[in-house]
């Protein structure tokens, strides 16, 4: 029975220079061995298309986008959708009005910039269009990413957003972004929905992710894996740590990455 590898994108297999050759080749070997690949990311569908599909990479079997807000098939056609309540973006903009951040919003088709108080952008959000808060209020939104370059600011701002949005949205920290998604949406909840209701019969579920928003995904795994470069809190909650996706896949295909061997793998 085929195994399922569920991988985060940014900081895990997608870097500033794209997807590394060794990881690209390893993912192809994973597919050629008859296994399943799922991408589980905070990115929008448009951002996934630009960094993955448009780069000619191996098509995943499924994509979980917007930190669990949407599940798609290999061609990025939505299978499951959870959108924001109307008015959520306006609440976020009000909280962030005087902060040194950049505010974005995403519908099912593309990403938009609401305002930028930082003066720079991030490669994590590769392209966007400027749009007014008024126009975006007419759109069905799935993700509200906030670029927060300063880590101390991120902790404080995430806490304030969590307080204001407690009844209508979920707030997830993700390296130098805060991802605001529909209430109840997490990478883990979407993975559970995918495994229980969409995926055919399968073997082990192996997760690979390097950030705090991957922890709910790791909770659903038979084997949870992070990178050695991940935050300590993430490493401590995973079964094992590796240097790269290529290393993990080599271990999986070679039979040397069983859960009961996790303690023997240096972290």
From TrEMBL:
One Pfam family cited in the UniProt record for this chain: Hydrolase_3
Name of the protein in question: Hydroxymethylpyrimidine pyrophosphatase
Molecular function, one GO term: magnesium ion binding
Assigned GO CC terms: cytosol
Native source organism of the sequence: Propionibacterium cyclohexanicum
InterPro entries per record: HAD-like_sf, HAD_sf
């Amino acid at each position: 029975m085929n195994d399922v590898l569920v991988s985060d994108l940014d900081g895990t297999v997608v870097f500033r220079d794209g997807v590394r050759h060794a990881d690209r080749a390893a993912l192809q070997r994973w597919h050629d061995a008859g296994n399943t690949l799922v991408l589980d990311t905070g990115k929008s569908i448009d951002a996934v298309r630009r960094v993955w599909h448009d780069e000619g990479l191996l098509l995943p079997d499924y994509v979980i986008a917007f930190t669990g807000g949407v599940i798609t098939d290999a061609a990025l056609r939505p299978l499951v959708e959870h959108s924001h309540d109307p008015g959520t973006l306006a609440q976020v903009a009000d909280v962030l009005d005087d902060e040194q951040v950049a505010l974005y919003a995403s519908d099912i088709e593309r990403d938009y910039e609401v305002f930028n108080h930082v003066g720079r952008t991030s490669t994590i959000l590769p392209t966007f269009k400027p749009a007014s808060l008024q126009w975006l209020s007419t759109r069905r939104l799935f993700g509200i990413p906030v670029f927060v370059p300063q880590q101390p600011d991120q902790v404080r701002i995430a806490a304030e957003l969590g307080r204001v949005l407690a009844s209508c949205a979920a707030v997830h920290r993700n390296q130098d972004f805060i991802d605001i998604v529909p209430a109840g949406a997490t990478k883990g909840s979407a993975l559970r929905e995918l495994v229980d209701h969409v995926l055919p019969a399968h073997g082990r579920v192996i997760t690979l992710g390097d950030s705090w928003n991957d922890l709910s995904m790791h909770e659903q795994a038979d084997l949870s894996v992070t990178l050695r470069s991940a935050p300590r809190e993430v490493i401590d909650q995973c079964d094992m740590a590796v240097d790269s996706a290529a290393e993990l896949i080599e271990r999986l295909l070679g039979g040397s990455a069983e859960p009961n061997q996790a303690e023997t793998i240096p972290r």
